[in-house]
Design goal:
This protein is mainly beta. It folds into 3 domains: 2-85, no CATH class; 88-151, no CATH class; 171-223, SH3 type barrels (Roll), CATH 2.30.30.760. The chain contains 4 helices and 16 strands. The chain has a 5-stranded mixed beta sheet, with no helix packed on it. It has a 4-stranded antiparallel beta sheet with strand order 7-11-10-9, covered by helices on one side. A 3-stranded mixed beta sheet has the order 1-5-4. The longest helix is centred in the N-terminal third of the chain and has 10 residues, at 59-68. The two termini are 23 Å apart.
């Protein structure tokens, strides 16, 4: 695991094919491996990975797809296919467009990787201390939490935002949703984060650590 992590950080692992939507399709598999160029471009091959992660189709999955669609694979054909979610990060220009009517001065904003989409900031998400909670809209009616610190015209400088929705050691509710399946359990945060940021939590059933997005005070989630 440490070797794999080191390769990822060093940029030595090969790049994966980028997926722009919620699902992986035949066109993306054909981009990854030319042997599958005869596939229906719209063929649904399953969910795309969440932003910031990878999904790999192993040799047995590729063999199954090839058999089902009568595609001959050479003995030396690649034995796996790797996909990543195409992502963006918030920029002031994107936020100005979403906040244009307010005339807000943007001071800071969330920095986590996001799937391709657009920001939405409603007036009721703006708190007196200048923290504006919004949503990032993407895919098929999906969204994740984002935030920005702003100053409105004529308003005094906002007080520094030091509080976090979740701090290390807090008890949190974890929700993992994939399609129509929802798994929920209680855990403890092992790192701190603001709304829309990722924190580390542990699965109490097996002790495995993983990263989840802060969705509200005391609540984190993974949505696939």
């Amino acid at each position: 695991m440490r070797i794999l992590l080191g390769l990822i950080l060093a940029g030595l692992l090969p790049a994966c094919t980028l997926v722009e939507g919620d699902r992986i399709h035949g066109s993306e598999l054909a981009t990854e491996h030319v042997a599958f160029s005869g596939l229906d471009a719209k063929l649904d091959l399953g969910p795309a990975p969440v932003a910031g992660s990878r999904r790999t189709l192993r040799y047995y999955e590729l063999d199954r797809i090839a058999r089902e669609h009568s595609i001959p694979l050479a003995a030396d054909a690649p034995r796996e296919a790797c996909f990543e979610r195409a992502t963006v990060r918030l920029e002031a220009a994107l936020l100005r467009d979403a906040m244009e009517a307010s005339g807000a001065e943007i001071l800071d904003f969330s920095r986590n990787a996001l799937p391709l989409g657009k920001p939405e900031f409603r007036p009721d998400g703006l708190s007196p201390n200048g923290l504006w909670r919004g949503r990032w809209l993407f895919g098929d009616n999906r969204s994740v939490a984002i935030w920005a610190r702003v100053r409105l015209p004529g308003a005094p400088p906002p007080k520094p935002v030091t509080e976090r929705e979740i701090s290390r050691g807090d008890k949190v509710r974890v929700e993992i949703k994939s399609g129509g399946v929802l798994i929920a359990f209680d855990s403890e945060a092992e790192s701190s984060g603001h709304l829309g940021e990722r924190v580390t939590v542990r699965n109490p059933a097996n002790g495995q650590r993983f990263r989840a997005v802060v969705e509200a005070p005391g609540k984190v989630g993974i949505r696939k």
